[in-house]
């Protein structure tokens, strides 16, 4: 979903690997209640624990330069819990999948770095909001119509602000912790699911 203008994606793709990873990680943190609720409802306690652990470990990766974290192992663990979507999937599987995409992109930005990881995370996060609107309002929207929706406007503003801050920031534990705290303080996901 290319809802942002070309300039936004160009700036995203020009970010350094650590910046792309941090952008995706912040979106994943914000989306995390969507996955955690799905794991809770489906009684997948292992997924609940692992997702939280991977999230925390990635924040640690960004705050501790001397870490010995195996990112490949994190990716492997995450991949076990990515919801498989089919025609019978409950709605909750979709935002859970998008949260996994954002988290996996935060790891991939460092491990593989194709240069479009932040863009994939951005798309996953905005797709969550678009699908939520279509699901709750029982409608299908074109991109132009979505621009008029308050939740989409809030999501776009959040991502634009995040990109602006990360693109200007120097890599530091203080900046990383600030982003994490702000995200946690929101208290809910991009579609209003409360954090526990």
In short:
The protein is mainly α.
- What is the count of distinct domains? 1
Q: How many strands, what sense, and barrel or not for the largest sheet?
A: none
Beta-sheet strand percentage? under 5%
Q: Look at the structure and name the CATH superfamily.
A: YP_001051499.1 domain like
Helix content: 55-70%
Quantity of strands, as a count: 0
Output the structural class. Answer: mainly alpha
Name the descriptors.
196 residues; mainly alpha; YP_001051499.1 fold like; 9 helices; 70% helix
Describe the structure.
Helices cover 70% and strands 0% of the residues. Helix 5 runs antiparallel to helix 6. It starts with 5 loop residues before the first helix and ends in an 11-residue tail after the last helix. The protein has one domain: YP_001051499.1 fold like. The chain has helices spanning 6-13, 17-41, 45-63, 71-79, 93-111, 117-137, 143-146, 150-168, 173-185. With 196 residues, the chain is an all-alpha fold. It contains 9 helices and no strands.
Secondary structure layout:
Layout: H1 6-13, H2 17-41, H3 45-63, H4 71-79, H5 93-111, H6 117-137, H7 143-146, H8 150-168, H9 173-185
Helix pairs in contact: 2-3, 2-5, 2-6, 2-8, 2-9, 3-4, 3-5, 4-5, 5-6, 6-8
């Amino acid at each position: 979903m290319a809802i942002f203008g070309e300039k936004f994606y160009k700036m995203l793709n020009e970010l350094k690997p650590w910046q792309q990873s941090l952008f995706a990680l912040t979106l994943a943190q914000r989306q995390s209640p969507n996955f955690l609720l799905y794991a809770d409802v489906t009684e997948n306690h292992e997924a609940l624990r692992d997702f939280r652990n991977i999230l925390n470990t990635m924040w640690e990766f960004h705050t501790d330069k001397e870490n010995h974290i195996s990112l490949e192992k994190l990716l492997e663990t995450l991949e076990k819990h990515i919801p498989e979507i089919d025609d019978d999937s409950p709605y909750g599987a979709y935002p859970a999948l998008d949260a996994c995409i954002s988290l996996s992109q935060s790891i991939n930005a460092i491990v593989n770095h194709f240069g479009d990881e932040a863009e994939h995370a951005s798309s996953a996060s905005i797709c969550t909001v678009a699908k939520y609107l279509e699901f709750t309002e029982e409608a299908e929207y074109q991109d132009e119509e979505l621009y008029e929706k308050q939740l989409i406007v809030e999501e776009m503003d959040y991502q634009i602000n995040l990109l602006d801050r990360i693109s200007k920031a120097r890599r530091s534990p203080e900046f990383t912790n600030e982003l994490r705290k702000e995200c946690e303080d929101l208290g809910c996901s991009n579609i209003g699911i409360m954090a526990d």
